[in-house]
User: What shape does this take?
Amino acid sequence: MTGPEENGGPLPVVAIVGRPNVGKSTLVNRFLGRRAAVVQDIPGVTRDRIAYEALWNGKRFTIVDTGGWEPKASGLAGAIARQAEYAMKTADVIVLVVDATVGATETDLAAARVLRRSDRPVILVANKIDDERSEANAAELWSLGLGEPQPVSALHGRSSGDLLDLVLDALPEAPRETGEETGPRRVALVGRPNVGKSSLLNRLAKDERSVVDSVAGTTVDPVDSIVTLDNEDWQFVDTAGLRRKVNTASGTEYYASLRTEAAIQAAEVAVVLLAADEVISEQDQRVITQVVEAGRALVLAINKWDTLDEDRHDQLEREIERDLARVRWASRVNISAATGRGVNKLAEHLRAALASWEKRIPTAELNSFVRALVQETPPPARGGRAPKIKYVTQADVRPPRFVVFSTGFLEAGYRRFLERKLREQFGFAGTPIEVSVKVREGRGNGKKS
Assistant: This one.
């Protein structure tokens, strides 16, 4: 997945706003072409800003799915309003979603009054228009004073392509937030239930920002927190613990599991919290797999380290060596969220992992190293012929991706050997790296393995 924006700065941002239960998350899923946002027929399921990367007609942009906006609300609804308002302040284009079957409510009118003063392009979406007969409902929304309402059925996809074209036309050439790269780095704090994620966040934030209870799975929704560590701001997301299987979880647990996935996708680096006093479980393994498959930088934080006796310490080291062998490259820090021990070291591990995640090796240096390596240990022959490696290039960063051009197929074992040697030579601690092969058997004939 490469594009000019990937190395050229942040993507433009589209904020989806509106009062609760008008179909914002359904519209986000329609835009993305997959079920990424949480959808439930209960107002207020989306409580926080969640960012997704979208692609339409070759253009990449970020969609921010927000909670419902209730300007005079208090409590939870008030928090939702703040999330939506923040998204609008930082967006390049605002999409206001209104339920056309209900018509313009007092809340919609209040939203429109604010948006009419905005200097951002605003697209008014009349949602739940399932057929031509109901298009008259959309026309009534001219009264909001935001221009022509766009009739859409987010659920059935009706006119969603036309809407995306309008969004693309409204996007600026460059995102408004040009200084975003110097903003806080995004950290997903993940792990199975009751390993101490909320306690760690509270320790980092020096504030009771997350509900902490000894009952596993207390945290249902992510809580975004800007935390200062080692004189640098970091944006932490404390996520709900993953249950055994997403498809067998029910109700709140199911949505919490989806949130964890979304937090990893929205982050740049993930801190996977493991409990030192418990065996490394299948759930722990699954969370780590999610981070690796998402291509995010990875820091393993071993919590409750101060509670270990010598026997458990030795046993844990053996478990890590056996069960986490595939992520030996992960940055690791031993901490105690309860006492604060080791927590101050977290920032240096995060910085190191992100530096590896964004590292690019000059092509000449890369090929010089690989050429010497192949001369010393050539790839094994297949069918009597040994493949020759012609050229290697780093195709991407975040995470680093390498493409090897070869005259024949390279065995998986040899690709792992190349990855191991690249790590030994150039570092890459704390980040997954990818090595893929393009077979060039003859002139103009290429295939990827």
